[in-house]
Amino acid sequence: MTGDDARSSNEELQFDRVVSNAPARDATGAPVVTCVSCKRTIDSSYFHVNGRVTCASCRGAIESAVATPTDLGSFLQSLALGILAAIAGAILYFSILFYAHIQLSLLTIALGYMVGWAIAWGNGNRGVLR
Ligand SMILES: [Zn+2]
């Protein structure tokens, strides 16, 4: 018995109302498609973003929000934050080495993540793997 079989056996069957996955229709019988983001009716063409129907303007807004930044300001901000994180990590690493006389090689992995996180943060987390 699969999970679907168990779930379907627990649900009671109802015959009072129709549950349909088909799109709604207007007065002329044409299907009505609405944008998930802005809730407006889409007249001509629509797009799927992560499996959800969106209009052209919402698609453009979503694309620009997740696009990798290519401007010099974002690059310099990411570079500066990455360098600051690397300097802070070096200070932390050599402080532990100097005062505790412990060479924590595994700490360098965490410091690498810290630098990567700072660079992504400088970009506003755009253009990074999620
Ligand atoms: Zn929309």
Notes on the protein architecture:
The protein has 130 residues and is mainly α. The protein has 2 domains: 64 residues, no CATH class; 51 residues. The chain is built from 4 helices and 4 strands. Strands 1-2 form a two-stranded antiparallel ribbon. It has a two-stranded antiparallel sheet with strand order 3-4. A hairpin with a 6-residue loop joins β1 and β2. α3 packs antiparallel against α4. It is elongated and about 80 Å long. The two termini are 35 Å apart.
Give a count of the beta strands, DSSP E runs of length 2 or more.
4
Q: What share of residues are in beta strands?
A: 5-15%
> Which word captures the global form?
elongated
* Helix-strand makeup class: mainly alpha
Let me know the average pLDDT.
84
Q: How helical, in percent, are the residues?
A: 40-55%
Put simply, the count of helices is 4
Spatially, the strands of the biggest sheet line up as 1-2
* Count of discrete domains: 2
Largest sheet: 2 strands, antiparallel
* Structural Rg: 26 Å
